[in-house]
Specification:
By secondary structure, the chain is of the alpha/beta class. It has one domain: Signal recognition particle alu RNA binding heterodimer, srp9/1, CATH 3.30.720. The longest helix has 9 residues. Belongs to the eukaryotic ribosomal protein eL38 family. Keywords: Ribonucleoprotein, Ribosomal protein. This is Ribosomal protein L38e.
Length: 96
């Protein structure tokens, strides 16, 4: 069953547990609704949401961050024994 966590400290506590086996990180672009005001003040950056998912014995915990700097810091502060998997990146092809 999935559960969403909103606090970063709580998420790191969950990541340090014994039953935490895998962390998945996925970056997705956020789509905005276009209005007349938003088209005039269009920014060149597309906002990115970074989702961190941790698989534990009973639940899968999810944390969504919209700040890319915080996401990088959180990625570096995950426990070293936890397997981290980046989702959405293409695997390198093997040459024969």
């Amino acid at each position: 069953m999935p559960k969403q966590v909103t606090d970063i400290k709580k998420f790191l506590e969950i990541a340090r547990r014994k039953d935490a086996t895998l962390a998945r990180i996925k970056k997705t672009a956020i789509k905005h609704h276009t209005t007349a005001a938003s088209t005039k003040a269009k920014s060149t950056k597309t906002p990115v949401a970074t989702k961190f998912k941790i698989r534990c014995a009973r639940f899968q915990y999810t944390l969504v961050l919209f700040d890319s700097e915080k996401a990088e810091k959180l990625k570096q502060s995950l426990p070293p024994g936890l397997k981290v998997e980046e989702v959405g990146k293409a695997a390198p092809k093997k040459k024969n």
